[in-house]
Amino acid sequence: MTRTAAGLAMAVLAALNLEAAPLPGFVLTAQTQHFSFYSRDNQKVDAQKSERYVGQVEQMLGQQVAGRAEYYRYATAQELAAGTGTYAAGLTLAHSGQIHSTQAFHAHEIVHLVAGQMGNPGVFFQEGLAVAIGNEAKWQGKDVDTLARKTAASTRLSTLVARFESLDADTAYAVAGSFVKHLIKTHGIAKVAEFFRACPASGANTAAAFARTFGQSLDQAGAAWTASL
Q1: Per-residue pLDDT reduced to its tens digit, 139-158
Q2: Range of the domain at 189
Q3: Are the CB atoms for 87 and 81 separated by under 8 Å?
Q4: End-to-end alpha-carbon separation of the chain, Å?
Q5: Is there a cis peptide before residue 22, judged by omega within 30 degrees of 0?
Q6: Cβ neighbours of residue 212 under 8 Å, at least 6 residues apart?
Q7: C-alpha span between 173 and 140 (Å, rounded)
Q8: Last-in-domain residue among 98, 115, 132
Q9: Is residue 1 part of a domain?
């Protein structure tokens, strides 16, 4: 499970002083234009695949990653939790330029790294974009539209956006990924990126920014999405 929320990330950052590099126990194992890769216990990283992918996401979203990000490779989610305070397969602190991951290459977190520098539309859209692009619109190996169909038909989109973090994780990520996939298909990736940029770092007024960008309310867009599933 991956949790990446700007507010949570900044709280973890402040609490654990994660800005120093390298973190204790990690050694520099590779370096590219966009990344410094750190690992411990001989955990491998796929530096070139990560470098190629971040360039693709930058081009897709029209957003450059500022500086060189730090990519920390852990062996397990338990180790990641011990180092960051978050039990997850991956965690991205976009504004401090850090990825913490249990994977040698982590497309989902690289999407967060790029998108997190555009604006903050809230966790629903952050995770939805990372699932739609980084996970190729699949969650736990299954198509997100199939997984989201029942929930989309029974719950208003505005409610799903507001309650994302209280939902079962598998449901939440599939629903968010399915809806953002729908946005990309309907309006194009450039319009979705425009929406992210319209949202302030505080994450406030997401619904208003959505309406200005797409010309319809969250629930109107949600109804169209549900009808398409």
Answers
A1: 999 999 999 999 999 999 99
A2: 123-228
A3: yes
A4: 24
A5: yes
A6: 198
A7: 10
A8: 115
A9: no
